[in-house]
Amino acid sequence: MGSRKIGLLLVAAAMFAAAAPAAPSDAPIVQKVSVVMDGRPSPPAFRDLIPIVPGDKYSLSAVDRVVKQMYQTGLFTDIRVALGGEGGSELTFFLTRNLSVRRLDVLGARIKTSGLAETLETYRPGSVYVEDRMSKAVAEIKDALRREGYFGAGVSPMVQRVPNEARVDIFFRIGGWRRYRIESLAVLGTTLVPISDLEKRMKSRKGRDYVPAQLDRDIQSLAAYYASLGYSRSEIDLETETFNEARGTVALAIRIDPQEKITIVINGAKVSKSLVAPIWQERIFEEWGLAEGEVRVLSALRKKGYVFAALKSRIERGENEIRVVYDVTPGRKYRIEEITFEGVKAFTPKRLRDELVVSERVLFFSLLSYDRLFVLPREVEYFYQSHGFPDVRVDLQMRGIGTKGVQAVFKIQEGPQQKIRSIGFPGARLFPPAAILKGMVEAPGGPFFPPNVQRDLGIIETFYLNHGVRGTRITPRVERAEANLFDLNFEIDEGQVVTIRSILVTGNRTTRLSVINKEIRVKKGQPADYSLIQESKRRLERLGIFSNVRIDEIRTDPKSENLIIDVTEGETNYAGVGAGLETVSSVDSLALWNSQYRPTGTGEYIRSNVLGTAAQLSLIGQYSIVEKRAIISWTQPYLFGLPLRPSLLGWTEAEDLISYAYERRGISFNTAQPLGGGNLLLLTLSATRTILTKLEIPESDVDRRLQPYSTALLSVSLVRDRRDDTLNPERGYFLSAVGQLASPILGTESEYWKAFFKFQYFHPVVTRVEFGLTARVGLGHGLISIAERYFAGGANSFRGESFDMLGPKDPSTGNPVGGKALFVLNSELGFPLIPALKDLSGVGFYDLGNVFAEISDFRIAALESAMGFGLRYRTPLGPLRLEMAWKLGTPDSSRGHKPLLFITIGNMF
C-alpha cells in the first residue's frame, strides 16, 4: 500500500504543478495522450484503459478518476502523470507494472532445504511481489528453520528480475545456523507409567539433535498414548528449554498432567466405544454429554436393526476416575418390510416414494437402510414445505410384522397450503415483467415457499447482470392477501446499461493473444453480459494451459467499463512413468502363486501450450507381454478457426494374441464436437499398414501371413453419457454408436463396414442394492481382417470364457477365429456385505452372448450363458473386482464345469 500512496501523491503534485487554478473555460485541449509502461511505450491495449482522448478538455478530476480506476485493476504498483507540450496539451501516463513471483527457492549448504519455500505465506508462485513484505518472508524462513533445528540462521534474500518480463525469482540463501544437541530431557509431573515407556515413544532423546518440530510430534504421540490408557484429557507441554551456548547443548523438560481417567462402559450390546469417547475428551456439561452419547448409541443400534432398543446412562465417580456407563436393552433385531404414509391428502403415496427415491420391497434385502430411515421424516417435511405446507408435521412410528419384520409408518399432518396470488415488479422499465418472470422459481398460483424468494432475488439480479445492467438494487416485499394467499413484489431500482469499452489481457507470457481472444465471448462496444463474461472465464480454464484465470470489471464511467483478463500460465511439461506385473497366462484359479509374472511399463511425456498456441504434444510408450506400443500425438483447440479440438496421431504397435500376432503402423486424424446435454460427436480418419507375424488359423482374403495389408478407415461415433460417475456409476445410462467404413482407395486392401452399439444402465433398487446392465451389439460385412473382427470372452466381456475364446474356433487348432457379428449382455446386482465397509460390496451376475462368423449366422438359441458372483471394492480408479464365473449348458471339453476366476479393476467396458 505504501507505494500506491506515493503514486497518488505524485499524481496530485504533478497535476497541481501543471495546471493553474484557471476556470474550466480556460483549460487546455488535450492534443495527445501517451502511455509509458516500465520505461517503454506501452502496447495499444493499455492505452485503451484511458478514456481521455485527444480533443477533450484537460480536467484534473478526470485524470484523478482515471488513476484510481487503473489502480483498481491491480496491475500497477505506481502511476504518474505529466502534462507537457505547448500550452500543456500533451498528457503522459507513466505506469509501473506489478511484478509477480515466478520462482521461490531456498539455498544452503549442508542443510535440508526442500519444502522450506512451501512454508511461506508472504510469497507464492504467481503472487504479486511487494518489496515491503520481504522482512516478513525472511522471518517466516527463519521460523521454519528453527522448527527443523537450525537455530540463529542468517537468511539473505536475493531478487532477480526475469529478462523482458514483469516477474521475479526470489532466492533465500541460508548461512550461519547452529545445531544444538539434547543434553537432557526431563519428564515432570505425574506420569502414571514408567518413564522408560514414554521414552520408547519419543524420537527426541539425549544425545540427538534438538528439532522442535520433532518434539511437537513426540508430545502428540504421548498424548495419543495417554488417551489409549483412558486419559483423554491429559495435558503435555514443553516446560523449559535451556540452551548452553558454550557446549552447544540444550536441556529440555516436559510436564505431564494426565488429569482424570475417563472410562466408557457400554453394557448389553456390541457398540464401539469410539462413538462416545470423543464427547468426553474435553470438559463439558455432563448432562449434555450423557444425552449426546445416548443419541449416538441408539443411532448405531437402529442402523443395525434394533429399532426398539432402549438405554439408560449414568456417571460413576472414583478416585481420579470418571466412569460413563450406558446400560443397553437392544431387544430383537428387525428388518424393514414396509413403508407406509398416513394422512397424505395433497400427494399420492407413489409421488412421495418417487420424490424420496424409496423403492418397493426386494426379496432377500431390507427395504431401506436404517440410517436413511431416520432422516426420512425431515426429508418428507422439506418436500411438503417446498410445496407450500409450512406447518407440516411428520412422525415416524414402528410396527412389528411377524417375528423379524417391521413396518415404518410416517404419520403426516399436512396443514394448510400457502400459495402466491400475484407477482409484481414495481420500478422495472428496461424489461417487460414477463421476461423477468420467465426464469423464476415462484409463479402466480404456485406454492409459496419463503426460501424461494431469496432464490428468485438472485435470479432477478443475475437476469439484469446478464443483460449488461450494473448497479441494480432489488428489495422483495411479501404481503398476505388472504389467510393462505400472498402477493409477492420485487421492488427494483434499476441500474445503468454498461457497455465494454476495452478488453485488456495480461499475464500471457507464452500464449498468443489470438488464442485467448478466440475464447472471449464478449466484444468491445457490446453490453457487459455477465453470463458471457463467466463463459469466457470457463472457456479459458478449459484450455488447460492456465493455472488461474481472473476477470475484473473496472468502471470507467456510468455507462462503460474496462474488462481486465489476467491469466497465469501453468507448467508446460509433464512426465510420468508406471510399472507393474502381469501373468503370462490367464488366471483361472485362486492359486495366484502358480502363475508366471512378467514386468509391464508405461512412459509418458506431455508438452502443453506448444509455441503459445494451446496445442499439446504427447509421447506415450507401453510395454507388456502381449502388446508394445508407441504413440505420438498433436492436439490443438481449433481446426481452421472452428472449436473442434483436432488431434493428429501416429503410432506403431505390436500385439501377440491367441490366434494371431501383428505389427502395425498408422496415422489418424480425430476431432470431437460436444453437442450439449452430455452428447459428443467424434470423427476419425485413419490409414494403417499391418503385418501378421503369426496366424494360427486359416488365412482369409486379407490375412496374407507375413505380408502387409493396408486400411483406409472413416469412423464416426456418437456418445451420450448420463451417468452420475464415469468410474463408479450408481445411476444413469451411457449410450454409444460407432460406424466404420473401410474403402479400397489409394491401393488399400480392406473393404468393409462395421457398426458397434453399446448401452449401459445403472439403477439403485434399494439402498446400496444396485442393478447394472451392459449390452453390446457388433455388426460387420466385407473383407475384414482377423485383427478387425469381433472377439469376446474375459473379465470385461463374457465371463464364462477366457479372453477372446467365445465364438467360432478353428477345428484343427481350437483357436478363436473371430466373427462379423457380436451380441453380449451383462447383468449384475450389487449388494452390501459389511455395513461398516461401504466401499466393499458383493455382486451376482448373469452373462449372455456369442460371436458369429457372419451376421446371417445369428440365432438366439446359439447364445451362450454364464453366471457367477464376486467382490467389489470401490477405488478412485473404478471398482477392484474379484469374480468367479461358471459357463452354463454343455461343459467345455477342456475345462468341464470348473469356474473361471477374474481379477480386474474398472467397470465393464
What does this entry look like structurally?
With 909 residues, the protein is α+β, with helices and mostly antiparallel strands. The chain folds into 8 domains: 2-97, Ubiquitin-like (UB roll) (Roll); 104-175, Ubiquitin-like (UB roll) (Roll), CATH 3.10.20.310; 181-257, Ubiquitin-like (UB roll) (Roll); 261-329, Ubiquitin-like (UB roll) (Roll); 336-406, no CATH class; 419-496, membrane protein fhac (Ubiquitin-like (UB roll), Roll), CATH 3.10.20; 498-569, membrane protein fhac (Ubiquitin-like (UB roll), Roll), CATH 3.10.20; 638-905, membrane protein fhac: a member of the omp85/tpsb transporter family (Porin, Beta Barrel), CATH 2.40.160. 17% of the residues lie in helices and 42% in strands. The chain has 14 helices and 41 strands. Strands 26-27-28-29-30-31-32-33-34-35-36-37-38-39-40-41 form a 16-stranded antiparallel beta sheet, with no helix packed on it. Strand 24 (546-557) and strand 25 (560-569) form a beta hairpin. Helix 1 runs antiparallel to helix 3. Mean pLDDT is 87; it is low at 1-23.
